[in-house]
Amino acid sequence: MTDTIFIRGVLIHARHGVMEHESEVGQRFVIDLELYTDLSDSSRSDRLADTVSYSDVVETATAAFKDVNYRLLERAAGAVADAILSTFARIRAVKVTVHKPHAPIAAIFEDVGVVLTRSRHP
């Protein structure tokens, strides 16, 4: 059985991008997370020890996203996925969506970003 914890709309200012001004000034990014895990124990016990702390997940994701200035959004999202899977043994897989609403694209657009899904290797 796989259940899902979701965290949406985490706002982070970071310096990712190919353009020079992106690495100097930075911009706002939005991260959505879906954590796939078994919540059967915590749904019965009501104990934090039987699940994953949302606060700790956000802290881990934020640090992984901000620690290095990546050129590609794909790499930044991959760093978040890797950090979550290596930190939280209860999480079997993670879906990371990174939105870059102010990407330097010569067009009018609502949103742009990447979605990565990574799972723990058996």
Automatic annotation (TrEMBL):
Reaction(s) catalyzed by this protein?
7,8-dihydroneopterin = 6-hydroxymethyl-7,8-dihydropterin + glycolaldehyde
Q: Name one GO molecular function term.
A: dihydroneopterin aldolase activity
Q: Name one Pfam family in it.
A: FolB
Q: Which UniProt keywords apply?
A: Folate biosynthesis, Lyase
EC primary class: lyase
UniProt xrefs under InterPro entries: Dihydroneopterin_aldolase, FolB_dom, GTP-CH-I_C/QueF
Among Gene3D superfamilies, the record links this protein to:
3.30.1130.10
- Pathway the protein takes part in: Cofactor biosynthesis; tetrahydrofolate biosynthesis; 2-amino-4-hydroxy-6-hydroxymethyl-7,8-dihydropteridine diphosphate from 7,8-dihydroneopterin triphosphate: step 3/4
Q: Which residues form the Dihydroneopterin aldolase/epimerase domain?
A: 5-118
Question: EC?
Answer: 4.1.2.25
What the record says about family reads: Belongs to the DHNA family.
Role description: Catalyzes the conversion of 7,8-dihydroneopterin to 6-hydroxymethyl-7,8-dihydropterin.
- What name appears for this protein in its UniProt entry? 7,8-dihydroneopterin aldolase
* Originating species: Bradyrhizobium aeschynomenes
Name of the gene encoding the protein in the UniProt record = folB
